[in-house]
Amino acid sequence: MDQPSPPRPAVMIDVARLAGVSHQTVSRVLNGHPSVRDETRERVLTAVRQLNYRPNALARGLAGRRSRVLGVVSFDTILYGPAATLLGVERAARAAGYGVSIVTLEQLDHDGVSDALSALAEQSVAGVVIIAPFTNTAAALRSLPMGIPAVVVEAGASGGLPAISVDQVAGAELAVRHLLELGHETVWHVRGPQNWLEARDREGAWRSTLEAAGRSVPPVIDGDWSARSGYQAGLRLAGDPRVTAVFCANDQQALGLLRAFHERGVRVPDSVSVVGFDDIPEAEFMSPPLTTIRQDFDEVGRRCLAMLLDLLDSPVETPVYPRVTPVLVSRASTGIRQSANANS
Amino acid sequence: MDQPSPPRPAVMIDVARLAGVSHQTVSRVLNGHPSVRDETRERVLTAVRQLNYRPNALARGLAGRRSRVLGVVSFDTILYGPAATLLGVERAARAAGYGVSIVTLEQLDHDGVSDALSALAEQSVAGVVIIAPFTNTAAALRSLPMGIPAVVVEAGASGGLPAISVDQVAGAELAVRHLLELGHETVWHVRGPQNWLEARDREGAWRSTLEAAGRSVPPVIDGDWSARSGYQAGLRLAGDPRVTAVFCANDQQALGLLRAFHERGVRVPDSVSVVGFDDIPEAEFMSPPLTTIRQDFDEVGRRCLAMLLDLLDSPVETPVYPRVTPVLVSRASTGIRQSANANS
DNA sequence: AACCGCGCTGTGAACGCTAACAATCGTCCC
DNA sequence: GGGACGATTGTTAGCGTTCACAGCGCGGTT
């Protein structure tokens, strides 16, 4: 008739009593401290199971110094890149026994990053991953009140901060070279928003690859990652006979571009070849299937976390990790430069 | 020569000393307790600013009952729906002064949900939002060790759990009716994965809408949300002259379907009309632009959070919120049933 | 003049855990 | 055989905050 399960969840002292040991011994068992007799350890673990005990992370964090929670600052997690990176980081964190607290920025600016970081600091996160490839993240980070270990994702020039990045330059080169090798005289570019580092890197590499090949550099077209901006770029480009190859800074823009071309009767790849960036799951099923540059976001997440954990161990030295190398995925949207050339 | 800023961040007692009051008074000021003299309040706030003091959320959570952190359990945050909902919830939570801790499920099963919930419980979250429209989430939730207030998102039959959902039935009806009104004899359906509640609801509503209209119900085609599955469905459907209208359970599937149709020379909307579901940002720029059912995920997130906060206030009664109503967005992928009919 | 109540403030004890140190026991070594 | 030592366990003190319960001073009552 007694009530065996109190509504209040068991705490460490309950386990200790049930196992006939002190709470400290329970703590030792839970934290894998070596000097506990096997027989005692078993007794404790049995009690833990019996009471369905789960240690309280809050108390843990308060008592020890480190919490088992990491913070992630991200921006626009509906975009494929950030979403995929977030997922990668979250998975890796969970595998390493960390919880993940997120803050999504409304705007990519200094104050936003700063606020986000102090919100996370308040929660005593052990470290922070910043998936906000804002051109000015570094400054925001430096102005951080307290020194939380932080890793920045996908920031090209991170200003000395530990960073994991996909080699955007290599990716853009891959795209441009691919198009040049197909016989195109030059390559047009629809770039991403200027406050994103990736966008700048891709544009820069596009430009320098063309220059290195001794080709003329057409005027760059603005874009903001959205399919709409790609569509608008497509409308502008569709009338121009000089345009035979376009490198879009991401796949959504390429989708919009393809749409505009389709509407205007520009045939892809017959008249114009198109390359995107990211290899979103939909790329393979666009009309036509999109040649693009694949980034391994999962790998980014994993390395990112590995780096952060290194940083937690030895906060003095900044670990250096190699960039993640993107690969070209060739599909139907790119083709040999057609005989139209013969007219010239 | 002295060092004015100790590396250790200021704590409440530091503020108290600086302001010449007790730590409890500082606490009162911070929590907006009324019985503090204005002059004292000012003095404390000045000290807070001066020391750049931020209360420690861990200690707060430990001492008081409630933490200011909410948990979110989600699944496959790369998909548009979950990603958008997550973003909506996160925004609303932040606006309400809550932090957000996320757990992304690897698999949609009972244990996954259960583990995720206890991981969050460990972090003493105040409440949980579950964006895992798994058909069996309800059971997993009930087997939860302790009673954390929880709100389920997008679950049709949530088994008595507080839930916010988009009215999938209304949405699917909108899609099917739209196609019937355009003169199509019947509507084919490419459904989503069977363990998703949304997929089941959409399929059910598709079926019953057809039946209510006295139309024949074609065999359903399987899909898994991916563009690839839509593509495969498209290949199967492309040869069939009876197919004049297809309702896809989401926009990605519709994209794949459009691709397959394009490949096989099936013209959209001339030969076949296609409707999707979600209105992802890319839908407008598909070839042709996709008619689809728009869901307001931001609204879902907001209501969800409002509901959870209600639940935190009075855990006894389950608040009831109306469903979010989706709307039809008509684009070029649907058109009047063409003269092909005249042949029959 | 003693008393009550109210506005404001301070004191002590949790909250559940880890860290540092002390205690106990048996063993090993000379 | 005594003391040092290692293995194992217990004890005590925080971590930084909130909660419950006093205190104190002052004006108004009786």
Automatic annotation (TrEMBL), chains A, B:
GO MF terms held by the record: DNA-binding transcription factor activity; transcription cis-regulatory region binding
Full protein name: Transcriptional regulator, LacI family
This protein's UniProt keywords: DNA-binding, Transcription, Transcription regulation
Gene3D superfamilies: 3.40.50.2300, lambda repressor-like DNA-binding domains
A Pfam family: LacI
Chain ranges of the HTH lacI-type domain: 10-64
